[in-house]
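Quick question, first post here. What does this chain look like in 3D?
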Amino acid sequence: MATASVEVVPNVPKEIVKVETPTSNQQVQEETTKPKIDIPTTSTGELKVSAFSLASIKQKKELAEAQKLATKETIQYPTEPFTETDMLLQWNKFAVKLEEKGQMIMHSLMLINDPKLDGTKITHELPNEGTRLEFERTKNEVLGYLRGMLHNHDIEIELVVNEKMENKRAFTPQDKFNRLNEINPNLELLRKTFDLDV
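> Answer (accepted):
Ran it through. Tokens below.
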């Protein structure tokens, strides 16, 4: 039994080519059939797939799986516990770094009094609104340092303006020692162990 194969030719526009013959000066038009086939491609050069084909369903599934894998993983920043003494030590170290950089105003604002710790919220009192605005400019830098050094990214700084605040400045060596001893009570043990004078 013989089967006849039927070839389906798409309706393709024909291109008309003008050809000049060297023997005559007249132009002769010949009709030739050159199919123009536009193959859709993506911007990366890959073939586009019809939305109604099985290949497109496969591509959609692959894309969905790739998006599931590419979803951002939430980053867990450290939240280690710390004490007020730890916080005060790092606070004073940062104030010294600011002094070394030449930022004397910010240095004095940080040391104007000791901040108070409530959980992970640090409350710092300042004498007026102008000093609060000055502190706000470098607040993020202070937060970044404290969060990194204390390994706790939940730390926040709250600035409170207290017009009646008294300055706690240390003028004599004994005042300085007392202030540092408030921050770190182990200094008294160190002074007694080595029989040091203030």
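The longest strand covers residues 15-20.
The first helix runs from residue 54 to 70.
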